[in-house]
UniProtKB/TrEMBL annotation:
GO terms for biological process: heme biosynthetic process. The lineage of its organism: Bacteria, Pseudomonadati, Bacteroidota, Chitinophagia, Chitinophagales. PANTHER family: PORPHOBILINOGEN DEAMINASE. Keywords: Porphyrin biosynthesis, Transferase. One of its GO terms (molecular function) is hydroxymethylbilane synthase activity. This is Hydroxymethylbilane synthase. The keyword Transferase applies. GO terms for cellular component: cytoplasm. Its EC number is 2.5.1.61. It comes from Arachidicoccus rhizosphaerae. Tetrapolymerization of the monopyrrole PBG into the hydroxymethylbilane pre-uroporphyrinogen in several discrete steps. It catalyses: 4 porphobilinogen + H2O = hydroxymethylbilane + 4 NH4(+). Residues 7-215 form the Porphobilinogen deaminase N-terminal domain. Its cofactor is dipyrromethane. Residues 231-298 form the Porphobilinogen deaminase C-terminal domain.
């Protein structure tokens, strides 16, 4: 493929975001497409103190880039797919989903004894301090360990690692894909076997303007159908349950031998209530799998958790932020 057009690629300016954008840039240039990177700071990058649930959440890492895209300052945007609202902004279309990296969550720890107990997930009396900025991770931790103290953790990978080093915390949680992509996974880190990931975690998506068919056609060859299908199912599950990315909703789908395997869950913010589901279907029948799994949970009583979250998160937004 060859195009005379210089495709402007928009990205956040963190080390991880730039790695993702440069990966897309390299892949496009291998196709004969000339590209240019445009780095932009998002609202989520500028405010590193306020918890995500108190920032309006929907699109906190994407809306600035959306505005650049819709105003024709850039042609495509590269995102971590888990940061993208389930409803794309009007005028923006999904163009490609790259092959998925690890979808798991990593515990980065100081004391191996604490880590061993945490990773086992069995000792309800375990105490300590674990840092995360994720409501989803917090709820899953509190469900396993109600006495663990959660510390708010925001910032890019390097900032969060430094905060872990500087504070009396026992551990912090990171997305495995993020650390591995920029070669910053420390020696004392282990994937958490019982923690279900965020919908589309580990996947990279490239979007373009809906009215720019040329840009959409240029990025289309980068699409990995299996990853796009799995992430789509997970996002349908999230959307049907609630639609927000800062919620204690987890989902993970895999494609293997023509079959889709899916796991999903929703927890109350304090981890005391939990609904889970698992499904398997032929790949050819995947279309409504995520939505149907979500509806099953709602019928089981998960709608009570959804209503509680809709009440509790706005209440938290009224509270002063803590560093």
């Amino acid at each position: 493929m060859c195009s005379k057009r210089i495709l402007k690629i928009g990205t956040r300016d963190s080390k991880l975001a730039l790695w993702q954008a440069n990966t897309v840039k390299s892949l496009l240039e291998q196709l004969g497409i000339t590209t240019e990177l445009v780095a932009v700071k998002s609202e989520g990058d500028l405010d590193l103190v306020t918890p995500l649930y108190a920032m309006g959440v929907q699109g906190v890492f994407t809306k600035t880039l959306d505005a650049y895209l819709l105003s024709h300052k850039i042609d495509v945007v590269v995102h971590s797919f888990k940061d993208v609202p389930t409803q794309l902004a009007q005028g923006i279309s999904q163009g490609a989903v790259l092959p998925r990296a690890s979808a798991g969550d990593l515990l980065v720890f100081k004391d191996p004894a604490f880590a061993a107990a945490f990773l086992a997930g069995e000792d309800k009396s375990l105490t300590g301090k674990v840092a995360t900025g994720s409501v989803r991770r917090t709820a899953q931790i509190l469900e396993k360990f109600p006495q663990i103290q959660i510390e708010n953790l925001r910032g890019n990978v390097q900032t969060r690692m430094q905060k872990l080093h500087d504070n009396d915390w026992d551990a912090a949680i990171f997305a495995a894909a993020g650390l591995e992509r920029i070669a910053e996974r420390p020696e004392q880190a282990s994937e958490i076997p019982w923690m279900l990931p965020a919908p589309a975690q580990g996947a990279i998506v490239v979007v373009a303007r809906t009215d720019d068919p040329e840009a959409l056609s240029l990025i289309a060859p980068l699409n990995d159908p299996d990853t796009a299908t799995a992430a789509g199912i997970e996002r349908d599950f999230l959307s049907t349950l609630m639609g927000g990315c800062s919620t204690p909703i987890s989902a993970y789908a895999t494609v293997e031998n023509g079959q889709i395997r899916f796991q999903g869950s929703i927890l109350s913010l304090d981890g005391k209530q939990k609904y889970t589901t698992s499904r398997q279907a032929a790949l050819s029948e995947h279309t409504r799998l995520g939505a149907h799994a979500a509806k099953d949970l709602l019928q089981q009583g998960a709608d009570n958790i959804v209503q509680q979250i809709r009440t509790d998160i706005p209440d938290k937004m009224k509270q002063p932020a803590k560093d």
